[in-house]
Specification:
Chorismate synthase, AroC fold; homotetramer; lyase (chains A, B, C, D); 365 residues; FAD (chains A, B, C, D); Chorismate_synthase_CS (chains A, B, C, D); Chorismate_synth (chains A, B, C, D); NADP (chains A, B, C, D); 5-stranded antiparallel β-sheet
Chain lengths: 365, 365, 365, 365
């Protein structure tokens, strides 16, 4: 229980269901003195927001966040920050048909079995709707990291079904509805999604997220390594089934001579590690990849059971994204920012005292 | 900080360095009444132990665990369990040469930068030596899970470099030094490792671990999902760079119709999810894969820097495993057992009250 | 940091300042299936509410709580519960004069020094206004404890300045504005407060809170003893300077033969311990006392300093309780309920397994 | 469960029973670079140690602490510190008679009921023997606080039965077996204890502990206030039944004009608050008092029940302190040091960033 809080000393506790009155949360541990207003958070909320393109759910939510506390005269006070986002466009009637049957590939069955009872409207708490609060909270972390440490957290779509995408240009990512950093792939993506929609099916995706200017030294051995907590954060995003740091699963076939990132006075020669060694940041770019499954909310009939265990067929109507991976980009950024923020404060707590090492090689992207 | 504790209500706090006097820890939250003695834990410690085959480090440790508290007249009392393993075969002199240089691909540089100071003997706290305590602690969880719930946790080597291995027969796994569940692959593994040793190089590996008879309902939405905590646990094992649940990265190219695990009164038709939906166990087999990098401790010279940032060459002598992935099998099992144990107790705390659901479909392997 | 969360597995995270837009919080870990609506919480909020008598602050707040999530079709779902109370009657202009001076006996100076910056309006986060959220969250715990275990948590005023009050009749407590369980003391209390108001001064108080029908066995050795966590909870209430269990400070002059609660097959002969032995509940009444200081917000001028460290005089205007202890009664009840709820779930997690002891003596009030 | 860890980011996890093989623990989060050796901890262990005077238990334990990890070349490395103290003088046979009966006033009954099973030898985990580990861990905190911040933590006996003791001179405290800071009271104490021993009875005590040079700003609103965590720590010491900060229960009869600590440019005029306002340290002396009950282990027969609920008489033989309060002095110091250390690091985490306030009045004792 108590699974609704993330972080150890920079913490986010969230609440809210897909079709409740509102979603929101409490951000605790934010340093005082940070200039902060709703506009700082709204940008990422808009990026995550449903209804922004024809390839995401048609549900329209304003996702307008309100900061209810913790900010005074435009600056954080160091006390807890209350966040609230009202739900405005719930069409609960859409879900009445799935009240008594478990959608395959969804949390319906597991919630019912865990709690003996479930809010079936739009998946209730298991809906990705709650991630809006993560994005808002992550926005606070992002601002602090950027302003005080120059850290930048940036995500992008790195694969959609069969279409692999290289990170050609970060500045392109936010100019298209796919968060695709390679303009030459946009047409193919568009065509693929059009066909998919016609088919009534959905598709998996790979999302990548990176952070630059992360100081060397973040991460706590042995269990709370930076990479372990990143994996926790990313695998906790709806639909994620795999997480990689740096070379990820490619290391299986690498030899020691291939993988080890050699060093010279100018810095590391390579970044196979993804910016983490021994669970601690190296000062290089933190590079994370994750795999997101195709949503099971599709209009092709599937076999399932009802609440009595009897056989049933189901078509998931409602308004759903054919590729949930796309909208995960700002969520993954938010989660990475939350992990970095928590670890920055944790590092600072223990290491502000006797010794103050200076990096012996330059920070690297 | 305080990264040395794992779990929320079944917790393990560990201490110890590669070349210190001893390693050990505190296991807190174990239910009372469990029959427990050192022998219950020694088996897995022996499986993890160095010096057991010619393909693992030649360091010989007895790894004899002592239970110092929490057990009375052969049963756990419900109070904290103290574990101690003495270090017996340290050859610290081996490491004097690396005192002033950072081994590439190791935690030397990051520890030095984080703490301003490091125990360079054998990697100090960053050495995989500390995982012996995890294995001992995991043994307690394993015994409880098996005895009270019939849950079995089993790992195996699923790939070594280019050699992929299917889980043909779990009973074969512990009969060979590779934890390989397919006897037909043993010769190839042996040949590959022989060549590798000659070359003085190392190789990556893929390790898989599964749990059967896990009740439906374990996992806490939204941040402490079962899969998120498994990812945390596995990515926190030394050398792991990627973690997958079920189909993992294969989902990127799957369609919704491929991935969704349909259900009938007899149960699920498939297990693409790896036994977790919405972050909660489905009652199916929990299936986890992880990628382990090739160790950077190899006898082929590499470029690095010394503590003053000056260029240096390094050959890592000492006694090292050419494939650290192999010995990770019992460690991965221990970590999965720790996660399941913690979540079992967490689930029990919240759900022992008003509602007691019975699964509507049979538990499945 | 992150001091705004209470509890370990039944947790409450709160936000909000005296003069912000709203106060609220997240209650996590509530078992599913509990019937719950706003009315269940409103009663205690009304008891705590300012403006209910001429001896409490004249500030009028509706303190109308909204449950934003975690309840579906009238029952808790097992997911996090969002609580919101709008602030309606802020008169921030009252506080403009204290913007640049530190009120003696208040948190003004310490907040300014801790955070370098403070929301001076009504004490900001340090105001007792935030306790409304505790009362709402405690109401959830109270309902569960009562309904599932028959546990009753009841507080009362046990002393106001020189007027000591015995717990003559719990049913009288809520029939008067003093939470006084002895009707014969009401006139004296009324007279005392009238004089005090004329004087422009304030007075300390002693508040007591008890719980009956608590099962034997709650409390976790060695640091999270039930009494230790109760002390944590009570000392964390604004203005509390002392906490006692059972005989409290009287034990200093007791001998072993005086204090030890002897037992017979009918139960304990006495309850000097206050219902806790070795940090674990005995099944007897849990009895807690606390001392609350007189508020420093009085209309008699005092010496202080301003933000530049220069000498200044201050009279605290605004609307304040001459005895803050009175309104602490429902707050203390809420905190005791939160501690018991958390420990009940923690106990359940560990002890639902192998052994299920039955008390060998009857539960006792 | 998991009650055996204290602290949030400077944590201590302990294990061990009165008559087990050893007691010990893990200290996590200690900043790197602190010079530390066993001798730094042994002094306080010797102060706490049984067998040092004729008024404490005759059990003789060397209480020799070993540091097993986390220190390299005489300095802390920033990784977890393993502590071990072997038990050497257990006479378990002494306890065979109490195996089947519950000693009144002890944890025997509650442990049996909680866990269904108990280690009856010397109270098992409920014995004050475990506090030796707290003293060792607290010694680490004490050294850091003293060396880096100049903070001094000092305890003393402030009352024994009817004999009240003023803190005349801290330097006298450690020169007598009573931890009494007033030499003129030694004869009376000696006489009182002699009579008590003859009687076969025990007596309660009041212990006080203070800290000077604590920086302004420690403590986390709203639940983890410094005073709330101090109360948690102190009420968690065996036999403590009451805790006070500053004027404590005297505030009940104080008026606002009596209690408020007025300020001038030279500092506070008084310290009724005990150095904590709004849960945050003021920079003044932190002053804490606690009441310790008389031990129930006395040689005067008492009425109790056996494991079957039948009536029984009991005389507690074994070797026991007639006043357990005396030896609590170093334990209370250790716990206060642990709280301050944890809060110092927590404060540093959040407040090392944008704003760095300078106290506007001088620090005060």
């Amino acid at each position: 229980m108590s699974g609704n809080t993330f972080g150890k000393i920079f913490t986010v506790s969230t609440f809210g269901e897909s079709h409740g009155l509102a979603i929101g949360g409490v951000v605790d541990g934010c340093p005082p003195g940070l200039e902060l207003c709703e506009d700082d958070l709204q940008g990422d909320l808009d990026r995550r927001k449903p209804g922004t393109s024809r390839y995401t759910t048609a549900r329209r939510e304003e996702d307008e966040v309100k900061i209810l506390s913790g900010v005074f005269e435009g600056k954080t006070t160091g006390t807890s920050i209350g966040l609230l986002i009202n739900n405005t466009d719930q069409r609960s009637q859409d879900y009445s048909k799935i009240k008594d049957a478990f959608r395959p590939g969804h949390a319906d069955y597991t919630y019912q079995q865990k709690f003996g009872f479930r809010d079936y409207r739009g998946g209730g708490r298991s809906s990705a709707r709650e991630t809006a609060v993560r994005v808002a909270a992550g926005g606070i972390a992002k601002k602090y990291l950027k302003q005080i440490y120059g850290i930048e957290v940036r995500g992008y779509l790195s694969q959609l079904g069969p279409i692999a995408i290289d990170c050609v240009d970060h500045s392109v990512t936010n100019t298209n509805p796919f968060f695709c950093p390679d303009e030459t792939k946009l047409e193919a993506l568009d065509a693929y999604m059009r066909d998919l929609k016609k088919e009534g099916n959905s598709i998996g995706a790979k999302v990548s997220v990176s952070a630059v200017n992360v100081p060397v030294g973040l991460g706590e051995p042995v269990f709370d390594r930076l990479d372990a907590e990143i994996a926790h954060a990313m695998m906790g995003i709806n639909a994620v089934k795999g997480v990689e740091l740096g070379d990820g699963f490619d290391v299986v076939t690498q030899k020691g001579t291939d993988h080890r990132d050699q060093m010279s006075p100018e810095g590391f020669h390579s970044n196979h590690s993804g910016g983490v060694l021994g669970g601690i940041s190296t000062g290089q770019e933190i590079l994370v990849h994750m795999a997101l499954k195709p949503t099971s909310s599709i209009s092709i009939s599937g076999e399932t059971i009802d609440a009595d265990g009897k056989s049933a067929d189901i078509i998931t109507k409602g308004r759903h994204d054919p590729c949930v991976g796309i909208r995960a980009v700002p969520i993954a950024e938010a989660m990475l920012a939350l992990v970095l923020m928590d670890h920055l404060l944790r590092h600072r707590a223990q290491n502000a005292g006797i010794v103050s090492p200076t990096p012996v090689i330059p920070a690297q992207r």
